[in-house]
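From the pipeline queue, job 12 of 40. The input is one protein chain; the requested action is below.

Action: predict structure.
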Amino acid sequence: MEFRSQNFIPALLGSDINTYSVARAFHEAYGVKSAVLGKASSGPSHFSKIADFYMEPEIDNEKLFLTIINSFASKHPEKKIILLACGDSYVELIGKHKKGLRDNIIAPYIDEEMMAKLMKKETFYKLCDQYNLPHPATLVHKKSDGLSFNLPFPFPVIVKPSNGVNYWKHHFDGQKKVYKLNDRSELEKVLTEIYLAGYDDSLIIQEFIPGDDSKMRVLTCYSDKNGKVRLSALGHVLLEEHTPKGLGNHAVIINENDSELEEKIRRFLEDMHFVGFSNMDIKYDERDGKFKIFELNVRQGRSNYYVTAGGHNIAEYVAGEYIFGKIPDFTDKAREKLWLVIPFRVAYKHVRDLALRQKMKELSAKGQIINPLFYKGDYSFRRTLYLVRSYLSHFWKYYKYF
């Protein structure tokens, strides 16, 4: 593969599809090889030709994080290091230790205080109310509330942690990313299991918004260092993953545009003086015709390559601003692409909306279809073996969990 000498190195924290999608964006834009720092030697960035993988088992250890990152940067003193988190725990660590980073490290993130407000769903929903951004009806439950409480909305309900980083530190059998519960006994059982595992922060109990995966949207934005939104990229989610720990992860997306929705989010981000990438999960509620916001991630999402595929390479925003001093003008328009990380046959079978299935066929026939993990020239034997196994596993996963 072709590589070009640059005065910067993207340093990507994590090991999943997020890291590979960002590394691919940087390689496509600048011919640069990224450094991926992950806990375990697995995932699509391992054995990749466009990324050097560094296994750092203690990368998420708060006491060692700064030492690990600064040590990497010290080995490349002549380079600027663009530090990008590809998971919430890494975002949180960057926020806490940003002031201690070496001078050659660029960390395009907001301060720790604002980060905490936006990452914790309980406080984020309060901000949504303040800015008149619709979200699902919500009850915040604390461990001290016990099980004797009244629900202000009917079943089924959704349960998820307010603090996702803390939640995943307390593992238990049957743990899920999100729970859809049909009655009171199921709700009380899940609340008890979560708290007994050691999680002691708030839980979010929400009304279930009717509709399948195709009612979901994903919005990715980039805000410059002055807090101005320079990129707004909306994706129509056709299908999500359905494994217990992957619930809500996007599997199929088509780029689209909704100026009214995107303008509301732009005003919110700019009023907050947000900086860097942000990512929102949103669902359309047919009952009142409104888009309801689920959460805001203080980073690019794991499905971020739908933005690059739509014609707006995300690397050109962060590197353009911090390395080359020229950032693309604001845009909220994108070309239509079918982004997926599962086999087309699996996607087509499980997308229920007939019009969307027809759209999938049309885009596929035109060659406007892309799986970010399959990149021409990046097929070492071990990586190809990983890709084939992962790709084929989706047939079984959707058979079992959908």
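Job complete. The two ends are 38 Å apart (CA to CA).
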